[in-house]
Amino acid sequence: MPIMFDGIQIGVLAAYVVLFVPDWSKNRKVKGCDFENLGSGDVKDLLNGSWVVVAGDSQARLLVQSLLSLILNEKRMGMIMKDLFKRHNDYEIVVDDIGMKLDFFWAPYMVNLTNLMVGFKQNRTYPDVLVIGARLWHMLHVNNASDYDIALENLRSSVVSLLPFLPELSTDGPVTGSVSVRSPHLFWLGMSMLINEMLNTKEKREKRNDQIWHAYYGALHNNRILRSYGGPLLLLEI
Ligand SMILES: *[C@@H]1O[C@H](CO)[C@@H](O)[C@H](O)[C@H]1NC(C)=O
Ligand SMILES: *[C@@H]1O[C@H](CO)[C@@H](O)[C@H](O)[C@H]1NC(C)=O
Ligand SMILES: *[C@@H]1O[C@H](CO)[C@@H](O)[C@H](O)[C@H]1NC(C)=O
Ligand SMILES: *[C@@H]1O[C@H](CO)[C@@H](O)[C@H](O)[C@H]1NC(C)=O
C-alpha cells in the first residue's frame, strides 16, 4: 500500500485508525502497510511544536481522546478525562515536552464550524493541523441531506478563504520562487457507521436511519469540500 501522506498526516491518521478500528493491527490488509509501525514516539515527533485544532461533535471529541492517549502517559490521561469529557464544552491542553497545543472546539452544527473558520481568519491565526467534522446534530435536528449539502458548501468556502494559499489547489502549475508556504494539514472526520439498535432514543433511531445515513454520506462524498473533489480537506475514513 503506498503511503500518500506526509508525516503529520500519517500521525493523525494513525490516531484515527487506533480509535475506530481497535483490531486494525490484526487485519491482514493493514499488516503489510507502514502505518502499523507508527508508535507514540513517531506521533510525538510529527506533532512536535504544532498547534492542533479538532472541532466538531462527540465523534471529534473521541478523536481528541485517541490522539492524546498516543501522546500522554496513562496517569496524565486519567487526570484530563473529566475535563475533556465535560459535556458540550471546549477543551484545551498544552503538552510541554513536545511543545504541542491542542484545542478542541465543541461545534455540533455545521454553522459552528463555519463560524470557527471565520474566527481563525479574523484572528489571523491558523492551526498546523485542523480536523473538523459535524453531522450527528444536523441529522437529528435538521434531518435534511440537501440542507447539509448547502451547509458543507458554506463551510468549504470558509475553509478555502482562510487559507492564504493552497498550492495543491492551484491550477497555474508548480509553485515557483522562494516564498515558503506553510500549508496546514486539513482533515474531515468521516462518517462512522451508526449501529441503529444502539442509539439511545426513539427519535435518534428514527432520524439516523440507514436511508438518511446514505443521503448524508452522498452529500459529503459529492461535495467539493473533500480532496477527492479538489477541495481542501482530506477525508479520514476507514
Ligand atoms: C521537539 O523539537 C525540539 C526542537 O526541534 C527538540 O529540541 C525537542 O527535543 C523535540 N522534542 C521531542 C519530544 O521530540
Ligand atoms: C452553534 O450554532 C447554534 C446554531 O446557530 C447555536 O445556537 C450554538 O450556540 C452554537 N454553539 C456553539 C458552541 O458555538
Ligand atoms: C480568536 O481570538 C479570541 C480572543 O483572543 C479567542 O477568544 C477566540 O477563541 C479566537 N478564535 C479562534 C477561532 O481562534
Ligand atoms: C431541505 O433543505 C432544502 C435546502 O435548505 C430546502 O429547500 C427543503 O425545503 C428542505 N426540505 C424539507 C423537507 O424541509
Note down, in words, how this protein is organized.
Keywords: Membrane, Transmembrane, Transmembrane helix. GO terms for molecular function: acetyltransferase activity. One of its GO terms (biological process) is xylan biosynthetic process. It is found in: Membrane. The chain has 238 residues and is of the alpha/beta class. It has helices spanning 7-20, 28-31, 40-47, 58-71, 74-84, 110-123, 136-141, 145-162, 202-207, 210-221; strands spanning 51-56, 91-95, 100-106, 129-133, 185-189, 234-236. The protein is built from 10 helices and 6 strands. The longest helix has 18 residues, at 145-162. It is globular. Mean pLDDT is 78; it is low at 1-6, 21-31 and 165-181. It binds 2-acetamido-2-deoxy-beta-D-glucopyranose (4 copies).
